[in-house]
Amino acid sequence: MDFTTIITTFGLGGILGILVKHWLDNKKDLTIKLNQINEDKYRTILIHMSCSLDYENRKYFSIQKDFETSSKDYYLNCVKEYYYQSILYSPDFVLIELKKFIKNPNKENFICTARAMRRDLWGKKTKLKLEELFIETRE
Predict the structure, then answer these.
(1) Tens-digit pLDDT string for the chain (139 aa)
(2) Rounded to two decimals, what is the model's pTM?
(3) Residue 61 has what DSSP assignment?
(4) Which residue ranges make up each domain of the chain?
(5) Residue spans of alpha helices (H) in the chain
(6) Are 52 and 75 in contact (CB under 8 A)?
(7) DSSP, residue by residue, 68-87
(8) Taking Cα atoms as reference points, which of 117, 128, 57 lies closest to residue 91?
(9) Which of 9, 77, 80, 90 is deepest in the core (most CB within 10 A)?
């Protein structure tokens, strides 16, 4: 190989390397942004799910003042609306759990939905059983 061939090869390889790195960095940034959007949406859904289970929970969350006099049904309707929006961005296993919660809002379905959301966001499953995730409340 002569000197010009080596220089040309390294030049093209360097340019190609820069382009591939740029593409991978953009893809990584997009993944981070999408994950943040999903996390924010999932948090909002969980808040509405919690308020639909126990209307008194609304006191513990930052919810717009206009809706403080709403009912448990209002919050469940919000969850339904988020369900329809989630069809665009959530994986099937999250949609299935969310639909179960909408059909039968209870603590078990809440935890199952939260676990599915966690798996979507972080790719992590939990080894904890449902009973271990429940928080006992004093009545």
Answers:
(1) 565 666 566 666 777 777 778 788 888 888 888 888 889 999 999 999 988 888 877 777 766 555 555 778 888 999 999 999 989 888 999 999 999 999 999 999 999 999 999 999 888 777 777 777 777 665 5
(2) 0.71
(3) S
(4) 31-133
(5) 3-53, 72-86, 92-103, 107-122, 130-133
(6) yes
(7) TT--HHHHHHHHHHHHHHHT
(8) 117
(9) 90
